[in-house]
């Protein structure tokens, strides 16, 4: 019981200490207003280009995409903030299981991503006057939680690079832009070249966006189980890889002496 | 050449070297134009060639330009504050405004590199047809756009000088400008209450000028009108920049908190 309590206590403390919750103005500007304006921008764009066709699906998909702020930039901070403050070597030298430690640190970002996405959807509904069927809400919550879990797994793999490279802003922005491009939130995957849409299948959020559009636009849940199982499996694989990546990155940081370099 | 002007030109060169050494700015200049252009092309793929040129080529190119301003000029003040050099620059014998303007022009030149990378990428990867352009007209329009965007960035940089939330603001202002200034769609589709905000922002008229001079259907009256509007709004912003500079200078000296991070 004590270990479970410690798991959640660490999740909460690390989030408070390493992220912008310490400064509410920063949090509102970066984690809420910035994603919301991104969602409104893309929703306005697709509304104009497609003449309002399937707007509900595009708004909901763009709302889901808002989790990128948490799953990429938030997850990056899980390692990078400690490094910036010079506490990373202490964390890594502690006897605690690193897999459990970093998974605990991921939990608030999964929840924060879901919160931002839900808020985005509420704003989208209010601003564009669209309606989301009540029966779609529960499947959407399930899809979004699994998709964000998966995206956070990939974000943690990226976070592991914080151990040895000072170019995290470059890498994190490439990943965030790739998710926006490959998810198909603003167009059908069929407009992409086949090699790009094949590549998209290995990225998180692609299946989440596909299901979100299908459920919101047509109430179609026929692919729900298959796509969500795949997405969950993808997320588990990402987290498993991230544990290995962190161990390897830690080794590299020790060898290169870059753990404290910010 | 006077000391201030020499410092201005030297700052442009130093700033261009410093900016491009930052990984984030490397992403903004070398990589983000490809993402913007590709995403916009996928959205607009089935539209007419004119619409694709106006909104995909010019729009995504301008997104790259604006992003470079946001992650450089708007945040340079904050960066100097973080390094602890802001106060030194502020009290140097060379006017602070020349240094800031030099930084902004240096960053805007990089922004134009990013914009033209996007043009080249779309032309050769997606085989887009570009209209025949009058060289003198397009060079004049580019010059007007550089000056206008630089003046606007100067006003923003001054406002950020006083803010302790400059980094958060920097992250926030990217998409609102994409949205309000109609980079990827006409501003008439925005809610009526939002359109006056579009009208008072120079980027709206800067991209409008580029759209007008590259549209073969534009009459000479429309082209002159587009130039006049951009020059007029830029002149107003020069006035705002002058007043804001005096106010920021005075407040910074009275409060003595310029370097407080």
From TrEMBL, chain A:
Keywords: Cell membrane, Membrane, Transmembrane, Transmembrane helix, Transport. It is found in: Cell membrane; Membrane. GO terms for molecular function: ABC-type transporter activity. Pfam families: ABC2_membrane (PF01061). The chain crosses the membrane at residues 26-46, 58-79, 110-130, 136-158, 170-189, 232-249. Its main location: membrane. The keyword Transmembrane applies. It is a multi-pass membrane protein. Residues 26-249 form the ABC transmembrane type-2 domain. One of its GO terms (cellular component) is ATP-binding cassette (ABC) transporter complex. Belongs to the ABC-2 integral membrane protein family. This is Transport permease protein. It comes from Ureibacillus manganicus DSM 26584.
From TrEMBL, chain B:
InterPro entries: ABC2_TM, ABC2_TM_bact-type, Nod_factor_ABC_transporter. One of its GO terms (cellular component) is plasma membrane. Pfam families: ABC2_membrane. It is a multi-pass membrane protein. It is found in: Cell membrane; Membrane. Keywords: Cell membrane, Membrane, Transmembrane, Transmembrane helix, Transport. One of its GO terms (molecular function) is ABC-type transporter activity. PANTHER family: NODULATION PROTEIN J. Belongs to the ABC-2 integral membrane protein family. This is Transport permease protein. It comes from Ureibacillus manganicus DSM 26584.
């Amino acid at each position: 019981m004590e270990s479970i309590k410690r798991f959640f206590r660490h999740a909460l403390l690390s989030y408070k200490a390493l992220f912008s919750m310490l400064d509410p103005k920063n949090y509102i500007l970066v984690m809420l207003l910035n994603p919301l304006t991104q969602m409104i921008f893309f929703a306005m764009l697709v509304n104009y280009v497609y003449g309002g066709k399937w707007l509900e699906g595009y708004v909901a998909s763009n709302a889901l995409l808002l989790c990128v702020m948490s799953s990429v930039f938030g997850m990056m901070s899980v390692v990078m903030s400690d490094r910036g403050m010079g506490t990373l070597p202490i964390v890594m030298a502690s006897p605690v299981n690193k897999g459990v430690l970093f998974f605990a640190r991921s939990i608030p970002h999964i929840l924060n991503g879901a919160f931002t996405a839900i808020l985005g959807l509420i704003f989208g509904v209010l601003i564009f006057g669209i309606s989301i069927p009540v029966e779609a809400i529960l499947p959407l919550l399930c899809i979004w939680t699994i998709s964000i879990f998966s995206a956070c797994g990939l974000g943690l793999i990226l976070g592991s690079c914080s151990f040895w490279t000072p170019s995290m802003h470059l890498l994190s922005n490439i990943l965030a832009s790739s998710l926006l491009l490959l998810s198909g939130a603003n167009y059908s995957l069929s407009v992409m070249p086949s090699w790009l849409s094949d590549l998209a299948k290995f990225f998180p959020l692609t299946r989440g966006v596909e299901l979100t559009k299908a459920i919101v636009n047509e109430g179609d849940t026929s692919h729900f189980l298959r796509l969500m199982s795949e997405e969950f499996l993808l997320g588990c694989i990402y987290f498993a890889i991230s544990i290995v990546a962190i161990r390897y990155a830690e080794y590299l940081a020790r060898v290169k002496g870059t753990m404290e370099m910010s | 050449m006077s000391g201030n002007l020499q410092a201005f030109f030297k700052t442009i060169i130093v700033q261009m070297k410093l900016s491009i050494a930052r990984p984030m700015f490397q992403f903004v200049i070398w990589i983000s134009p490809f993402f913007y252009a590709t995403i916009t092309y996928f959205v607009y793929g089935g539209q007419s060639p004119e619409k694709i040129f106006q909104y995909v080529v010019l729009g995504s190119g301008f997104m790259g330009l604006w992003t470079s301003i946001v992650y450089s000029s708007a945040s340079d003040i904050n960066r100097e504050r973080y390094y602890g050099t802001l106060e030194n620059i502020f009290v140097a014998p060379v006017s602070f405004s020349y240094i800031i303007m030099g930084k902004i022009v240096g960053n805007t030149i990089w922004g134009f590199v990013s914009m033209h990378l996007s043009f080249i990428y779309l032309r050769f990867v997606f085989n887009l047809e570009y209209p025949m352009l009058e060289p003198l007209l397009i060079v004049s329009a580019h010059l007007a756009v550089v000056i206008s965007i630089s003046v606007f960035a100067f006003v923003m940089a001054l406002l950020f000088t006083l803010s302790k939330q400059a980094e958060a603001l920097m992250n926030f202002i990217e998409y609102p400008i994409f949205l309000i200034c109609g980079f990827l769609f006409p501003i008439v589709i925005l809610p009526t209450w939002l359109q006056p905000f579009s009208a008072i922002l120079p980027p709206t008229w800067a991209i409008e000028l580029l759209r007008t001079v590259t549209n073969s259907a534009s009459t000479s009256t429309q082209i002159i009108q587009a130039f006049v509007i951009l020059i007029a709004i830029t002149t107003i912003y020069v006035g705002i920049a002058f007043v804001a500079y005096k106010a920021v200078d005075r407040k910074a000296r009275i409060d003595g908190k310029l370097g407080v991070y």
